[in-house]
Amino acid sequence: MPLDHGAIEELRVPEGGPAGLRDRPTRADLGLDDKDEGRALLDELAADLFEWQRRLWAEDRRALLLVLQGMDTAGKDGTIRHVMGAFHPQGCDVVGFKVPTPEEL
Fold it and tell me: For the whole prediction, is pTM greater than 0.70?
């Protein structure tokens, strides 16, 4: 089950460019039809994800930033549990952000 590379590129931030989260699609699905297809793909790619993380960690020069943006009950916690399960926990930091305070705005 191949990934839709066009959808992946749509989510990628150009090197040195702004993330532009406000303009990013909120329903990106990478061309997958349903959760079961996504779970099967994650199972298929788990070993590759672990290897890519190991290489980044060993290099200690670059990192990967994943931003999950969604309303409450959008499934962000479940996504973190499923996807981050493929990584070594010592090589990951998960940070939650709440709604900005009036002062932060």
Answer: no
